[in-house]
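Pipeline run #58 for the internal structure catalog. This entry was flagged by the ingest filter as a single-chain record with no existing model, so it goes straight to prediction. Upstream metadata was stripped on purpose; only the residue string is passed forward. Reviewer on rotation: M.T. Logging verbosity set to normal.
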Amino acid sequence: MSLGPELMAVTLASRLQAVPIANPERIGFLLLPGFSMLDFASATEVLRDTNALLGREAYQWFAIAPSENVVQASNGLNLRADRTLHDAPRLDRLFVCAEVEVELGDSIKLHKWLRALERDNCRIGAIGAGTYVLAKAEMLKGRSCTAHWQLAPWLLEQFPDLKLSRHLFESDRGLLTCCGGTAVVDMFVRIIATTHGRDLIDQLTMDLQVDRLRSQDDEQQSAPLPELGSRPRKLQSAIRHMEATLETPLSPEWIAAQVGVTTRHLQRLFRLHTGASPGKFYMDLRLRRARLLLQQTRMPVLEVAVAVGFSSHSHFSKRYRERYGLTPVQQRAA
């Protein structure tokens, strides 16, 4: 006989009654202007559903704003925060939530507040561009971290020694960082799993309709790889090498050697599956990344050029205009 969802939850809660009831874990989300509503909602829905399945308040969460109580998300919606930095409660964990434009990310006052929390045994984490804030606060030294793949060139330009991975989320000596998006669900379910049993995790993933719970070892998908998921592995490997070296472009001969094919075979693979030569495809990757940095960061145009492998501003401008019909300066103004 199959059990309905409500009866399953009741049965699960009764099985967990023997677990000693501790004080709720208090989790704060520092929402910087332009934060992702998807990131915040994904995290809090996992916590809400966990409480419902347990039949008790195992987790409390607080939306914290830097100063004003109302914070605007990246989708334009305004969210009224529970607290500000001035009256934030004692927390067990805090996640810094930010998008590409990290307003207030350079605030010395904010950095001091974050470091004080960590000294007070609060476990600090970051979602999306929150990683930038922790790097500016000098809280990532020597620790592995991650951020959304679109931010990687910008972050490494700002912090060359950053131990940045392509993983969906990272855990290193108490520090949790996540690339954002649906990966927030994976990370938070994993957080729950460290405290509660397999029964709860199975029910939680069913409730949230998570088909496959991804792990810390899973890598982010980055364009254009999703388009090429069914293409030859040698081609995907070549593209990964290209994406990882936009700042210092490699020769087709070197890439071919790395993936174990001849240069001529590499040329055939690219023309057959992408319609472009390796060189043209590589250039398009670099220009797409440049466009993203121009649209979504405040990096000076010259720094953007360097970040995508151009040593000459005029060459960068010429190539960009050929591709997008605008110069980089015009793109930034637009």
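catalog note: Residues 225-333 form a domain with the Arc Repressor Mutant, subunit A fold (CATH 1.10.10.60).
catalog note: The chain has a mean pLDDT of 88.
status: ready for reviewer M.T.
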